[in-house]
Amino acid sequence: MIVGIGVDLVDIPRFEASIARTPKLLGRLFTTAEQALKPHSMAARYAAKEALIKALGGSDGVHWTDIEIGAEASGRPIFALSGETATTVAERGITALHLSLSHDAGLATAYVIAESIPASAAPGALA
């Protein structure tokens, strides 16, 4: 069952200017691995983190560096959550996160769907 949907759009040149103006943002927003990426990829990951917060219904218990966007062998983007953010997502009953990223024409976008298993469909649930 879908419990949340989030979408975000980032203007890449504006994002790059913000990072250039305030370099400390990199350490506050991105993991060490993400900081090594090209600006358009970082902008897409920023959008993904914003979209995740929207899908969760708010930022309580969510920390930027507890969210890392990686990729499966196929290239499909995935979330790797840790710390309090992983705990928060689990406590909200979310069992799957779906992520789509794109960047083109100076814009980066991300779309997130958060799912949970309805109590009636969970293993061992009473009918």
From TrEMBL:
Enzyme class: transferase
Biological process per Gene Ontology, one example term: fatty acid biosynthetic process
GO molecular function: holo-[acyl-carrier-protein] synthase activity; magnesium ion binding
Pfam families (alphabetical): ACPS (PF01648)
Cofactor list: Mg(2+)
Record GO cellular component, one term: cytoplasm
Keyword Thylakoid: no
Reaction(s) this enzyme catalyzes, per UniProt: apo-[ACP] + CoA = holo-[ACP] + adenosine 3',5'-bisphosphate + H(+)
Main location: cytoplasm
Name of the protein: Holo-[acyl-carrier-protein] synthase
